[in-house]
Each structure stands twice: as C-alpha cells, then as structure tokens.
Specification:
alpha+beta
C-alpha cells in the first residue's frame, strides 16, 4: 500500500462505519407508514406512496364520487319530466287548451310552469287555429279544509301566448306606416288572479294520479289594458277574461 493511500484509509473507514451505524439506528427506530401520515400528502401523489392493498380506499372514494355524479344527472333528467297535466276552458288560450306542466318549490310546490296547446275554432274565419301558451303560476298560501282537501286562496302569475296563423304578425308589416299599430297581433302577455281547490287522492286509491285540482282564473292582457287606459268608454269589466280548468298531478 502506498503512503498516499494509507493517509486516507483511516478516515474512509471511519466514515463507512458511521454510515452503517446511522443506518442501523434509523432502521430500528423508524415508524411504519400510516394513513394518518399519508393524509398530509397531496391526493394526486397518494397512489404512488400507498402499498397496493391501501389503494382500495382511493378506489372506493372514486366510486363514491362517480355515484354522486350519476345521482345528480338522474335528478336533472327527472326534473325535466312533467309531473302534471292541465286542461282548460277559455282564458285567451283557445276555446280548449291542454298541456304538460311542472310544479316545484322547497317546502311546498308553490311554483308551476305549464306549456299548453290551445284550439281556436274557425268561427267566422276560414281555418281553425293553434295557440301556444307558456304559463307561470305562483301560489304562496295553502289552507287545509279536510284530510284530503286543500285550497289555495291566491294563485297568480303571467303567461305568454302566440297564435299560429299567417293572418297575425309579430313584427309590423312593411305595408303599414312605421309604428302605425305599435303592437304585435301574434304575441300577447297576460296576467291573472285565481284560486284552486285541491283533492289529494288517498294512497290506497291512487292509480295514475296523486291529486286533482280544480281552478279558475280572471285574466287580462297587455292590449286590453292599453285600450282601457286610453279609451274612457272601455271599463275594467270589459277587459277581464274568465277561465276554468282541471290539473292532474302524477307525483
């Protein structure tokens, strides 16, 4: 052995011995890896740190998130399914109108949205007509009259109607001077007030419906109101429209 190597041999042996001793101590006193310790590690690196048997917890969490996602999707599509149908007589929606609807709300189902199709006979014209109505109802109060009978003393809202016919227009035709009419003959905005009587079908007797509601409304539209305000010969009673209807709730 050369003199130069013998000068470095002792320090190298001491360093190697120190490393071996330190490794022995760390191995003896090291704590096992636990889930509580791993919880401090970012979630995207857990799969690389956990033993294979512990990845089942991560998989169960992923499955739980997937299940909640499916539940949200199912609730969304269920909310789009109509839960009632209405049939109505008169009310500036045609002689008879019918269509699906949705009732909803937190404590009670105080809101209703209906899409109704009305039939208007020809009368003195050449053809009968179809009227489409989008109706929104708000009924904030409900009074119990009996075990299965309730009344909504106030039901109010608004609806838009449009008539399918070439004889009516949404935008004023060019053949008229500008702002000659100033309103659309095809689209009407209506407001209404009414009441509803609700009968809850007993569970043992239910077949297709949960409840049957009889209702009536008094309504008017934007054109009638404008005519009443500008013409002193037209009274409030001249612009009011009455309608009655039945609503069948599925669930």
């Amino acid at each position: 052995m050369s003199a130069k190597w013998s000068n470095y041999s002792l320090p190298l042996r001491l360093a190697a011995g120190l490393c071996i001793a330190l490794r022995t101590v760390l191995t003896a006193y090291a704590e096992p890896v636990t889930l509580s310790a791993i919880s401090q590690v970012p979630s995207d690196t857990i799969q690389y740190l956990l033993p294979k048997k512990m990845t089942r917890d991560t998989a169960s969490l992923a499955n739980e998130r997937y299940r909640h996602t499916l539940e949200r999707i199912n609730r969304f599509w269920t909310s789009l399914t109509p839960n009632q149908v209405k049939i109505q007589y008169a009310g500036d929606m045609g002689l008879v109108s019918i269509g699906p609807g949705w009732h909803y709300g937190h404590d009670r189902r105080v809101w209703e949205t209906d899409l109704m199709f009305g039939y208007l006979p020809a009368y003195h014209t050449h053809h009968s007509k179809l009227i489409l109505t989008l109706r929104q109802t708000y009924a904030p109060f409900r009074v119990r009259l009996g075990d299965n009978v309730n009344i909504d003393p106030l039901a109010t809202g608004l609806y838009l109607t449009t008539i399918f016919s070439d004889q009516f227009w949404a935008k004023e035709p060019d053949k008229y001077p500008k702002k000659y009419y100033g309103f659309s003959t095809k689209i009407r905005a209506n407001v209404f007030l009414g009441q509803r009587l609700r009968y809850e079908i007993p569970q043992m007797k239910r077949m297709q419906h949960k409840a049957v509601i009889f209702y009536y409304d008094v309504s008017t539209n934007d054109l009638y109101l404008a005519s009443c305000a500008t013409n002193k010969y037209i009274s409030l009673w001249d612009i009011l429209v009455f309608d009655v209807g039945l609503s069948f709730e599925f669930y």
